[in-house]
Write a structure and sequence with these properties.
Number of helices: 6
Helix content: 25-40%
Oligomer: single chain
Order of helices and strands: EHEEEHEEHEHEHEH
Shape: globular
Number of strands: 9
CATH architecture: 3-Layer(aba) Sandwich
Strand content: 25-35%
Strand order of the largest sheet: 5-8-7-6-9
Structural class: alpha/beta
CATH topology: Rossmann fold
Length: 235
Amino acid sequence: MANIPTPHNGAKAGEIAKTVLMPGDPLRAKHIAETYLEDVTCFNTVRNMLGYTGTYHGKKISVMGGGMGMPSVGIYTYELFNFYDVDNIIRIGSAGALQDDVKVRDVVIGMGACTDSNYAKQYKLPGTYAPIASYDLLRKAVEVAEKQGTKVVVGNVLSSDAFYNDNKDANDSWRKMNVLAVEMEAAALYMNAARAGKNALCMLTISDHIYTGESLSAEERQLSFHEMMEIALEL
């Protein structure tokens, strides 16, 4: 593979599994690897975007940080799909709820990812592209959650380019279209997967509610993320 290592990923051929779990925070990737995986090796430290490969119940799996926002996750997932021959990327992150029936601690699975980004412009499509999850991963995630007794809400999420949005009415506009929650990466992940002919899924733990103001403490987030990570690992 002539394209690897890359300026962003120091892994060599064969060091990354076919399935990669991708939190935004590289330190969370480190925590997942040390907590859930066996026989762990670190394949990337470039820019401190830590990546690890190990085994879970005998199956090879990797976990790597993706950073914040679509430009960052776009780079890492593109390279994983196209240079490292990864087949499945499962984003595991946090989100802010937009709907009254989506509660803090709920796990949201992004069936689709709306976006205010121009990421799709590069494809020169003659219309508006709708980024969606891979059905097989989505179906399996729901089945695993049901077996675990974990509540999941499936639907549309928003991948926003702006964390601090100057348009104070933006959330209201997405809320009226029944978008469940807002995050910052899923749309780019889904588009990269579609273009590469690979599989992607975004699972999110609701860490705060945009309208009620409720939010989880650091300790509570750790417990809630634990449920989401176990779903992802079982996929």
